Amino acid sequence: MSDEPRYSGRTRAEWANWIATPCGDRWCQTKFHEAKCVVDWMIRTWGLELLQSGSGVIDVGGEPGFVAMALLERGVPAIVVDPSWGLTGKTNRLTNIDQMMQMPGCPKFSALRDMFDENFHAKHADLVSSASAIVSLYGDEATEPSLRFAASLGKPCALIPCNECIRFFPSNNQTYDGYVQACMDIANQNRGRFELVNLVGAPFSRALLVQPPLPEWAEGVIANVSPSTAPMSGSKCNESLTVPVGVLQDLGILHQVLWKMELARSNVGFAYLGQQPTGKNERSRILESNGYQRSCAREGVAGFCSGLPEALVTTPFQVVKVRMQSKELVQLYRNDFDCLVKVLSEEGAMALFTGLSTTVIRNSVWNGIYFGAIAKLSDWSGPGPDGLAGEIQNLVTGLCAGIVATLFDAPLDVVKSRIQESRPTARRTLPATLIELSREGGIPALYKGFVPKAWRMGIGGAVGFVTFEFVHRRLEKAMSGAPDLGAVPDSITTKDEYETCLGKLSFRDGLPDDDTVQKVYDNLDRSRGVSAFLDMVPLASLEAMRRGLVENGMDAANKVMIFETLMDCSSLFLTGNTDTVYATGLLNLQRDGPTVIEMPPSVGPCTVDDAFFRFVTDMGGPGPDRGAGGKYLILPPGYKGSTPEGYYIATSPTYTNWFVGRGFLREGKPDHAAAEWRDKLKVYPLSASGNPPKMEYLNISGRVMNTIHANDFSFFEEVNAVIQYEPIDFLEPELRGNLAAIGIMKGKPFQPDERMKALLTEAAVIGNATSRAISFAPRDKPEIYENSEWQSLFQGGDYHWLSHGGAGGRNKDARTRFFYVATVNSAAMILKMVGVGSQYAMASRDSEHKYLDGAKTYTLTLPPNVPAKDFWSLVVYDTQTRSMLKTKQLFPSRNSVAHAAEIKQSPDGSTTVWFAPSAPPGHEGNWIQTAPGKMWFLLLRLYGPLEPWFDKTWRPGEIVEVVEPEDFVEASVLVWTLVAPQLPSCLRSLEAPPVHSVEVCEEELSGDVYATG
């Protein structure tokens, strides 16, 4: 056995080899993502400035440096403490700290190969004391020392407890939750505060936050809340908070200053959670940030206690004010200062505190009720919005609180004024004054001047409160150095919960919980899979075409397949026709380089499409040779070489290209077109033009073959095959990015895990369903005629699928619809070329807008003078395969040339075609067979379309269901059997017919129902 040291079960070489594998790379990505989640959480919790202070953050057990890299990337110095630092072989592309250190402005980094145990602090006291925080992810034996140091030294600490607690700590409860509880106990024993939080990306999804000891006054508050019910930081708490009398002494401004100094000393960071409710001071924010919500009682007690110091300061001024406002006394003094001097010299200093007890009571009552009302009203109204609406809310709050406080304060104020205006010779006392006022007018006498005072104090309190909040907010921002970021609209914030099609989504101050994260990522991956399916239908379709042709022998440029006796329903081929002689081949420009196609004259149109079914060039009648034939040179992507003269040249963006030509029938027969293709169509590499290889023509009429893309998970495998083969830039970055997001990326193996494979399998189901909805039930029906089921396959009339000339971008639904049911992308198919090329119309529903059912009988009438110079045709297709419907009728079509002798026209020149499982008597020549249990759709083709088609003066009829006579009989019998038993009771309800008439009807109805005729 090797003596080489092992780390977590592997040697250095084994780790290094495994890290280089895709599995190891994914492990590294997961661990780095986890580290970034923890570091981001630390920054949110304690602030970047705190973490950057001192020597930085100690990363305990930090090999190979995931947390350190995350800290450095965010500008935080890092010190890794790990006895195996740099020795395990786990170093990878994500932890290249040496390269990171070369970057300008990189924070300081250092590493210690040492065990973070009970002796570490003695050896490295300066390092520990100067560190800003401690972090440890699965710290093994270092877990408990990290906790003790953090709690006892007042260091913020974030750690995920060791997930191998059974191996390292067998004495503890041998479950992960049990060990977490043990860690909490350790933190408590060392005067730390703990909090469990969920961390996105962490396998155990929980971290333990340790905060340093709080100031004594705060501990006094916390001591009055039982540990079992003490709220966590940031949690909602509706319990009232009992404040002991001793704590009331700490509510002055001095203790607020000391409290802030204590916060700074102990490096505790409290996150400011955004806009606070109206009337909330800094102390309330600090308490609430630790879970102790503001209390109306606490605010009221604080206000009540403020009455004494306020009375001591203000009573002398109140005495002078009252004397100067008294009609009898004002004549004794020249001015305010003279009044003050005379009171002191004649009556003594204590005269300035006349009515002190009453003033204390009055001020305490008013302040207590005012501030308590402010707190309660603020709780009712909730956080005040910014801007004018917020100021109005503050104004109303202050006004109401002032009026309520004055209601209790008014009697005391009247008594105070009477006492303070009295001279020493007639000094009044509180009880005597109350008795005097009650004799003068009872209780109303105590409220003399209440209305003006209520308005004065209410309006004054309102204006004062608005001004206070306005100035307070701005001073707070100015002193904190924070910029004025303006209002935070509700529209940009995230609520705590949403009910969606994914279920409930839950957030904590905008941060999604683990369940929400899983739901949205599953939805994201599934949605990207659906988008990839819809976007890649053209690509998968041509790849399926390529595979089908190659499997049937087309493996060289000089091999061409010809449907010499036309295509029938044996081949699975998207909406192929039975009307023209197909000649088709594949170009491999990577293998063969520039490739020549020699096009015969006067055969028919031919098109070249690339691997994404994009148009490359037309040949034949719609092409630049205009039916005269010629040589076409197809260049590969990025070709830089010279090109010879005498060729029609087109450059393809892809290596794989498919061409297909259609030879027209002569006298309804394919012989001439097949011979033209076989004798004159040539395909060869340009490099072999001096001695082209001999052509091989494969007759594939009647061949059973599949050229249709998959609708399950293998769809994505088809797409991946094309991505790996074709040049990287043949697709735009947006499409490539979406494919890469689901694991399809050039140069990378497509190996989705079980979760991703399941999501992509579902995505294929949804994508296929969406494609079928778009194809057979389009929302924006591309009707050729108003109120018609005849629709255009080329929705928007643009072979680039651009909407409104490009102003509406690319119509992706139109592209998906076309390539889901058809092939061949050609400019000629949508251009108005009277008498040239072909035009198409598709119908999948009857005149009642119902899908076409193969068990039923339908008719379609084509009006006279069908606008087709060459011929027209109707072909029936299977809705499942989008290929010709398989029946005993090998050619499920009618063609005005091939079937000219069989088709019968009506006397008016119109033609009625029948669709049914069996031939209607007398209409065999006009009949296309359908199949019970199979749905179908129809394509009308016009070859050499004429002007009446384009100007819509000629319009085909709708497909009409034919109800057979026997169906009427069956329906009548069914109705009669249902209605007959109810007739007697119905007739009895009529007064006119006698009872015996009903009995006659019953007797008649008791016979055979079929005999009733």
UniProtKB/TrEMBL annotation:
Residues covered by the DUF1214 domain: 838-946
Pfam families recorded: DUF1214 (PF06742), DUF1254 (PF06863), Mito_carr (PF00153)
Alphabetized Gene3D superfamilies for the sequence: Domain of unknown function DUF1214, C-terminal domain, Domain of unknown function DUF1254, Mitochondrial carrier domain, VPA0735-like domain
Presence of keyword Oxidoreductase: no
Source superkingdom: Eukaryota
Domain DUF1254: 558-685
Solcar repeat feature ranges: 294-380, 389-474
SUPFAM superfamilies in the cross-refs: Mitochondrial carrier, VPA0735-like
Membrane topology term: Multi-pass membrane protein
Keywords: Membrane, Transmembrane
A GO cellular-component term linked to this record: membrane
Subcellular location: Membrane
Keyword set includes Secreted: no
Protein name: Putative mitochondrial 2-oxodicarboxylate carrier
The organism of origin for this protein: Symbiodinium microadriaticum (Dinoflagellate)
Taxonomic placement: Eukaryota, Sar, Alveolata, Dinophyceae, Suessiales
Name of the coding gene: SPAC328.09
